[in-house]
Design goal:
Length: 490
């Protein structure tokens, strides 16, 4: 950690509070994952900075919440237009900051961030409230929904702008004001977005951005008595801490946490499609997506054939410089994360599992400037015991385990055999089996014969240790508002 800042050699970020950029005295080094070099200084904010941001959000709340949804939507759509106009700049920055390929940032991250604002600007206009009559008592009952107040939003490093806007958009659409804390490892695109807020028409204090670590800035935000609502995406361990800090204040919580997502491939599956899509679902964005497949279960009769095809397709998945459009994967987000992911491969080997391709098996040739970057080839492992940490813990990298199964019941048992329950994929041509297995799997989302097909109107979230609550469409509208029942006797 560096307390001195060299303004000549590094990008230096500032907090955005009350419509102004505010410098700080303490900073954290942020690295370019593809080179291993420091390229950015991120504010190391604490209690004072969070306090200022919360106060700015509180002051902005009465005016912003009094605006009509259509008026708020106009501002959000203008921001979406401005972000879209700067799409390439955002994509280049996201790639350099996070390690993902420029192509992925250009085609997935930034367009989705833009769409998040457009979607919620529109969807908030179409929600209705309830009304009931009690004629025998001469009463009519109706409900109204009001914004909660200052929303504390904490987003992760894997899809930085994409997941940050997934929180900010519904929060401000419903009339709340916001104090957001992106990950300290990937803060640049959030800072860039702040530069566009005034031009878009956001009044000062509606959106505030405080950069820093979880233990300092995050803890101050979730423990602040004037922040009644917290939306968090990240690890289960951090969510437990947030729950503890929030409990004395009875805050509204939405927690989108880890996944250890199974793909279940039955013998009647379209094997070509299953292999192609499962490679993508296992390794997209370096496997750093909470919805990525990390456990693959294949019906025994097709297990050898699937494995042969899957390993061959995995070896075709190219890893290297994020700026090279021919590469499918870039670098992992940090050296610490790279070592964590590698440690799972080492553990699997020590337990007698077989590494079929990837880490320690296939060489990785990198350009000279990327020699110190945090790269790992997509890795396929077989023979891992269901009880192993490799099978039970979230690795969050390009590492996947493949095991056979016999019959539907065993497939479901294996699929449900972890503490997580975010997503699952099922591959079969049998429509009856699709519905049976989908109902039995303990997961918030089940895709059949596809992966990552998302309608933002539908609920998003997990069960068990994968989270609490749902967001998306009506669910976000309900989470970011409080319902009030009004009874009138006539």
């Amino acid at each position: 950690m560096s307390k001195t800042v060299d303004h000549r050699t590094h990008l230096v970020l500032e907090n955005y509070i009350g419509g102004k950029f505010v410098p700080v005295s303490r900073h954290i080094d942020s690295y370019d994952p593809s080179t291993g070099e420091v390229y950015c200084k991120v504010p190391d904010s604490g209690t004072d900075e969070v306090e200022a941001a919360v106060q700015a959000a509180k002051e902005a709340f009465p005016d912003w919440s009094a605006r009509s949804p259509a008026e708020r939507g106009q501002v959000m759509n203008k921001l979406a237009d401005l972000m879209e106009a700067h799409l390439e700049e955002f994509a280049q920055a996201e790639s350099r900051d996070q390690g993902k390929t420029v192509v992925f940032a250009r085609t997935v991250d930034v367009p989705r961030a833009v769409y998040n604002f457009r979607f919620f600007a529109s969807s908030v206009l179409h929600h209705t409230t309830d009304c009931s009559t009690m004629d025998h008592l001469g009463c009519i009952n109706y409900t109204v929904r009001s914004p909660v107040g200052v929303a504390g939003l904490i987003s992760p490093w894997n899809l930085p702008l994409y997941l940050l806007t997934w929180k900010i958009a519904p929060a401000v659409a419903t009339g709340n004001t916001v104090v957001a804390k992106p990950s300290e490892m990937t803060s640049v695109t959030a800072w860039m977005m702040c530069k566009l807020l005034e031009e878009a028409g956001f009044p000062p204090g509606v959106v505030n951005m405080v950069f820093g670590t979880g233990p300092r800035a995050g803890d101050a935000l979730v423990g602040h008595p004037d922040v009644p609502l917290v939306s968090f995406t990240g690890s289960t361990a951090t969510a437990q801490r947030i729950t503890e800090r929030s409990a004395p204040f009875c805050k509204k919580l939405s927690l989108e946490l880890g996944g250890k997502n199974p793909a279940i491939i039955f013998s009647d599956a379209d094997l070509d499609q299953a292999v192609t899509t499962t490679v993508r679902s296992s390794f997209s964005n370096q496997g750093e997506i909470c919805l990525c497949t990390s456990r693959i279960y294949v019906e025994r009769s097709i297990y050898p054939e699937f494995l042969k095809r899957f390993v061959a397709a995995t070896r075709e998945w190219k890893t290297g410089s994020p700026s090279d459009p021919d590469n499918d994967n870039g670098a992992l987000v940090s050296r610490e994360h790279l070592e964590k992911v590698r440690s799972f491969v080492t553990l699997a080997r020590s337990e007698g599992a077989t590494v079929l391709c990837g880490e320690g098996k296939d060489p990785l040739v990198l350009p000279e400037r990327n020699a110190n970057g945090y790269f790992l080839r997509p890795t396929v492992i077989t023979g891992v015991a269901e009880s192993s940490r490799v099978m039970q813990d979230e690795i969050f990298g390009p590492v996947v385990c493949v095991n056979p199964f016999d019959g539907e019941d065993e497939a479901v048992d294996k699929g449900n055999g972890v503490r997580y329950g975010l997503a699952a994929t099922v591959w079969t041509r049998d429509v009856g089996r699709v519905h049976r297995v989908a109902r039995r799997l303990e997961a918030g989302l089940v895709w059949t014969n596809c992966w990552l097909v998302r309608d933002l109107n539908l609920p998003f979230g997990g069960v068990k240790s994968s989270g609490v609550g749902r967001e998306g469409g009506r669910d976000s509208y309900h989470f970011f508002t409080e319902v009030k029942t009004i009874t009138v006797k006539h």
